[in-house]
Amino acid sequence: MFTLDVEENENGERTPYLIVMGDLDRETQDQYVSIIIAEDGGSPPLLGSATLTIGISDINDNCPLFVDSQINVTVYGNATVGTPIAAVQAVDRDLGTNAQITYSYSQKVPQESKDLFHLDETTGVIKLFSKIGGNVLQTHKLTILANGPGCIPAVITALVSIIKVIFRPPEIVPRYIANEIDGVVYLKELEPVNTPIAFFTIRDPEDKYKVNCYLDGEGPFRLSPYKPYNNEYLLETTKPMDYELQQFYEMAVVAWNSEGFHVKRIIKVQLLDDNDNAPIFLQPLIELTIEENNAPNAFLTKLHATDADSGERGQVLYFLGPDAPSYFSLDNVTGILTVSTQLDREEKEKYRYTVRAVDCGKPPKESVATVALTVLDKNDNSPRFINKDFSFFVPENFPAYGEIGVISVTDADAGRNGWVALSVVNQSDIFVIDTGKGMLRAKVSLDREQQSSYTLWVEAVDGGEPALSSTAKITILLLDINDNPPLVLFPQSNMSYLLVLPSTLPGSPVTEVYAVDKDTGMNAVIAYSIIGRRGPRPESFRIDPKTGNITLEEALLQTHYGLHRLLVKVSDHGYPEPLHSTVMVNLFVNDTVSNESYIESLLRKEPEINIEEKEPQISIEPTQRKVESVSCMPTLVALSVISLGSITLVTGMGIYICLRKGEKHHREDENFEVQIPLKGKIDLHIRERKPMDISNI
Q1: CB atoms < 10 A from the CB of 253, how many?
Q2: Rounded to whole angstroms, how far apart are CA atoms 591 and 560?
Q3: Whole-angstrom Cα distance, residue 170 to residue 161?
Q4: Of 352, 371, 275, 270, whose CA–CA distance to 314 is shortest?
Q5: Scanning 294, 354, 532, 642, which has the fewest C-beta atoms within 10 Å of its C-beta?
Q6: Nearest-angstrom CA–CA distance, 567 and 532
Q7: What are phi and psi of 441, to 5 degrees?
Q8: Is the model's pTM score more than 0.70?
Q9: Cis, peptide link before residue 576, omega less than 30° from 0
Q10: Are residues 527 and 616 in contact, defined by beta-carbon separation less than 8 angstroms?
Q11: Burial call 88-99: b when 16+ CB within 10 Å, e when fewer
Q12: How far apart are CA 532 and CA 535, in angstroms?
């Protein structure tokens, strides 16, 4: 019925056109479903497919038709007004408005017949419209037209014969219990057994003859006397009925008297479908596969479920379950399952979620199937090093073929696509790498005096087709040994001094000790400590082990005036043994310097200082330490013992000192990481004293 005509323009673009090859008749087949396949010219060729659904729309190409050209109808002269005597029905195979049929009498039908028999223009039912009189014609020819849009009317003739009644036949009077419309009883399927349909009263109008009755027809129905009343009969069901097995029943209640007169009352039963069947999937588990890096909106499968019910109850809609990822789409009507985005096997390899088939009944019924989707691997990931740059610190004179470090590399692909081989791109005459373990080794002993660092590149190649690769930079730094003690740059001399005013507030910085170390790495990390003190109250000063800043710890009193001498030890963290230097820090507490010669004479005297061998504690790793709360309780207790009378003043001073200490610790912890020495040539007149961050060590 259809074919594709592929045309190619001057730019080489191909466009398929759908060509109709045969005559289309919607009444024969209203829908065609095909699959279009596109094939590229690669080797091997790759295919893409799409489902093409062609719906045939209706045109008014059929006119109403009657099955018969004439029907014969017999009416008794005593028939009740409003009794249906016949029904005509024409068929139009078109749809919608094209199939609308209206019935009417031909202009040839006499007005007397039209007044006696009423024709329903929609249903085609002919009813007795008025009482049959004695002078009415015995035969009526009713020409009935079935009119369709744009069509010549179809014609049928109803020949009605009226029988004059001498002896009135038995009467059958129905009283319907079930829903009845125009002589048709409507019952729901699966109604329980013994569901009543109607009562029938059977009687002889003359009250002269005995009347009997029975049920003529097949089906799960029973007509039985209804006691304790006479001539009353009950029509009821004998078993549940299933719409999917049979939808329509027709029977007759027949009554006859002893004179042989028979009367039939036609009973039509139409079953109403109930939503008693849930949709059924062909497979409860739907297993699918797709290669990763698929095109957006890629076709996965077409779901199919069947429902035995009719009408809307049998129409099936498809829905994704609540566990389905948002990038899967399911067409509710066609059941076509697609994925809207590219899938990455390395991100997720297997998907498992539910789909639902729901009918349109009230209440709806549904069934569930499980979709199991496996994403197939492609070689779309290059080997990936754990770090872009690797740095290794190796002590000088490192032995040949010693283990320098592990080069870690991964490949997110699977199978052969995930196999990785390592090789050294440059410096391969000095270094070699173990492909299996990724261990980097040096073929020869490394001497820092010959070369202090090496930079090489390592390449990782996977086993895919085509193979993918990546490189990483390796930096090898040879570590120095500790052979230089710290060099104190400030103060420049043990004979220098600094004036400290008595009004200086506790916690204020007074001066600093600044030193550098010509070594590198850990050998150049410096710590400061006071190992000796002399003066009126030298413990009033403390030194920061990291920065070398000297601060005043407590308020200066008049008894504290004079020269304070602090012996400061500047030590590195060298290995195997740290080296150190010492410097004397001289602080003169006074309002002014009135006699410099006197101070210089004090400085020339050898101070008697007891050495305190207390190693400074300094953290090498940069870390944020919590400010330790400084306990003020000992200070408060001591001040309380000295003078109970001035307890309020003493308490206030103690709290003030504590707050100042807490602020000082907070500033130091926020602003300081680790100090490293200056590198290169040092200008003793221009010194950069700002601490430097070495968090990269």
Answers
A1: 22
A2: 12
A3: 20
A4: 275
A5: 642
A6: 5
A7: -135, 155
A8: no
A9: yes
A10: yes
A11: bebebbbeeebb
A12: 11
Three-state SS at 115: helix
Nearest to 323 by CA among 377, 376, 373, 375: 373
323-348: average pLDDT = 92
**Per-residue pLDDT band at 574 (split at 50, 70, 90):** confident
Q: What span, in angstroms and rounded, lies between the C-alpha atoms of 462 and 470?
A: 9
Which one-letter DSSP state was computed for residue 628? P
SS3 365: coil
- Tell me how far apart the alpha carbons of residues 534 and 563 are, in angstroms, rounded to a whole number: 8
Place of tokens 């020409």: 143
Residue with tokens 């506790």: 506
Structure tokens at 558: 């008049």
Q: How far apart are CA 522 and CA 120, in angstroms?
A: 110
Mean pLDDT score of the chain: 82
Task: List, in order, residues 6 or more apart from 610 with CB less than 8 Å away.
Answer: 532
Nearest to 139 by CA among 71, 73, 70: 73
Q: What is the pLDDT of residues 225-282, one digit of tens each?
A: 887 677 889 999 998 888 888 889 999 999 888 767 788 889 999 988 888 888 999 8
Q: b/e map of 588-621 (b: 16 or more CB within 10 Å)?
A: bbbeeeeeeeebeeebeeebebeeeeeebebeee
**Two structure tokens written together for 109:** 């039908």
pLDDT value, residue 684: 31
Burial of 315 (0-12, 13-18, 19+ CB in 10 A): middle
| Helical residues (DSSP H) of 550-680, grouped into ranges | 596-604, 633-642, 647-671
> What is the SS3 assignment for 649?
helix
pLDDT for res 653: 52
- What is the Cα–Cα distance from 313 to 277, expressed in whole angstroms? 8
Residues 140-172: tens digit of each pLDDT? 999 999 998 888 999 999 999 988 766 677 888
